[in-house]
Specification:
Blueprint: E1 2-7, H1 13-22, E2 27-32, H2 44-61, E3 65-68, H3 71-84, E4 89-90, H4 96-103, E5 109-114, H5 116-120, H6 122-131, E6 137-141, H7 145-150, H8 156-166, E7 175-180, H9 189-195, E8 201-204, H10 206-219, E9 231-235, H11 240-263
């Protein structure tokens, strides 16, 4: 059995890493739409076409389930993908609902980091409108961050200056939670932990997404456990250099996650 994981670039590797931890006896096919990354600064119609083309290429390789490991792609195409394909499909959305519930009694606000395109979608607006009755959610577009991540730019000084500039207009004492609303952003979680005041929690949707995947696989009787955690990589540009970068990026993220866990 093969579980597909799709993203515009390397961001979905943060979801894949979570799946490898929680579902290690499955096999995975990871697809990056390298010809068109980043999605967050492009038009909705163009991105929709890119997504459908990429998923179709994955289906030709053989899929039993799919994780759309991209908030922007989920908001634009998840409904159409579920209409097209009969296998289980899990999407992502910024973890606004649980963080609003967590913060409701603290008197502090929630700050959502996301791509401009995600923040412009009606799906995101509807989500916030539905759960944010007390109007404690603020949204911060970070249009450059995906491109930094795609370049494997993790220099602490460069990225620290970037985040300080973006957060300059915010009183961080007002906030209790920062939501990482793009799967690229957890690559910077450790740096953000060091920069943000200690009372701020940093939340992403990866663990919840993989839990939903596991529940769906169980419901459909697909938790056969016959895989070995094998990962195959694809990219729309068929670039050997990008294939190598995906493997390196997965290792970087997994090592940083191990370091963060051991530091607790």
């Amino acid at each position: 059995m093969t579980i597909g994981v799709f993203d515009s670039g390397i961001g979905g590797l943060t979801v894949l890493a979570e799946a490898l931890k929680r579902l290690p006896t499955q096999n995975y096919l990871y697809m990056a739409d390298t010809l068109h990354v980043p999605y967050g600064t492009k038009s909705k119609d163009d991105v929709r076409a890119y997504i459908l083309e990429s998923i179709e290429a994955m289906v030709r390789e053989g899929l039993d389930a799919l994780v759309v490991a991209c908030n922007t792609a989920t908001s634009i195409a998840i409904t159409e993908l579920r209409e097209r394909y009969s296998f289980p499909i899990v999407g992502m959305e910024p973890a606004v609902k649980p963080t609003v519930e967590m913060n409701r009694l603290t008197g502090r606000r929630v700050l959502v980091f996301a791509t401009p395109l995600t923040l412009m979608q009606s799906k995101y607006y509807a989500l916030v409108s539905r759960v944010d009755e007390e109007r404690i959610v603020d949204s911060l577009p970070l249009p450059e961050l995906v491109s930094y991540c795609e370049k494997l730019e993790f220099d602490r000084e460069i990225m620290g200056n970037y985040f300080r500039d973006k957060l300059a207009g915010y009183n961080l004492q007002d906030y209790g939670i920062v939501v990482l609303g793009c799967t690229h952003y957890p690559f910077y979680k450790n740096l953000l932990r060091e920069m943000l005041p200690p009372h701020i929690q940093i939340v992403d949707g990866n663990a919840g997404t993989v839990k939903r995947l596991a529940a769906l696989l169980s419901r459909y009787g697909m938790m056969d456990g016959s895989g070995i955690g094998n990962v195959r990589f694809m990219c729309s540009g068929n670039s050997p250099a990008y294939m190598d970068k995906m493997q390196r990026a997965l290792g970087i993220y997994q090592n940083s996650d191990i370091e963060a866990q051991s530091a607790k």
